[in-house]
Every structure is written in structure tokens, then in C-alpha cells.
Specification:
The protein is α+β, with helices and mostly antiparallel strands. The protein contains 2 helices and 3 strands. It has a 3-stranded antiparallel sheet. It is rod-shaped, with a radius of gyration of 20 Å.
Length: about 110
């Protein structure tokens, strides 16, 4: 029985190391969201921060800020979806197909 506990502890330590590695990868992850055929580009980090924004100067027209605002929101949503997809892929790789309870979120 002691051997089983030792194996379990070793498995837990390995899982902790994998989670720490996944957290680091998420911090380093970046995704670009685009809208308006690339006229608005946002770079988001794995933790959802806005790292960069690029707006085509032709969109900066007085009185048409609503269009630009909508394009920025659309680009942000595009980037957010890419980050979520990358996160889901990392979680799947990390958990190796283990059945998890509904709503379970990884700590990264």
C-alpha cells in the first residue's frame, strides 16, 4: 500500500509540473484578432490583455466612430476566440482525455 501512495504522490508532482508549464505557455501565448478585412488588428495575450492594436488610417473618419468601434469589438472577439481555442487545446493535451466534472476549469 505504501508503494501505491508513493506512486500517487509522484503522479501528483508530475501533474503539478505540467500545470505550471501550461500556465507559463498561456502567459506567452498571443493571438491576433482581425476585422474589416484586416483593417483592424488586435494582439491579445493568453490572459486576455490587449498587447497591440493597429488601425488602418482610412477608418479614422470624423463622424464615423461607430463603425470603427464595431470593428474593434469584432477584432477583439476574433482574438478572444483564438485564445480560448488555444487554451482548450492545452487543457486537452494536459489532461490526456481524463474525464472531468462539468464546468471544471484548469487553473490557468
Amino acid at each position: 500500500m505504501m508503494k501505491d501512495i508513493g506512486g500517487l504522490m509522484k503522479s501528483m508532482q508530475q501533474m503539478q509540473a505540467k500545470v505550471a508549464d501550461a500556465q507559463k505557455k498561456m502567459e506567452d501565448l498571443q493571438a491576433e484578432g482581425q476585422s474589416g478585412a484586416g483593417m483592424v488588428k488586435l494582439t491579445l495575450t493568453g490572459d486576455g490583455r490587449l498587447a497591440a492594436i493597429a488601425i488602418d488610417p482610412s477608418l479614422m473618419v470624423a463622424g464615423e466612430q461607430e463603425i470603427l468601434e464595431d470593428l474593434i469589438k469584432a477584432a477583439f472577439e476574433d482574438g478572444r476566440k483564438k485564445i480560448e481555442a488555444a487554451r482548450a487545446g492545452m487543457e486537452k493535451d494536459l489532461m490526456g482525455g481524463l474525464p472531468l466534472p462539468p464546468g471544471f476549469k484548469m487553473p490557468f
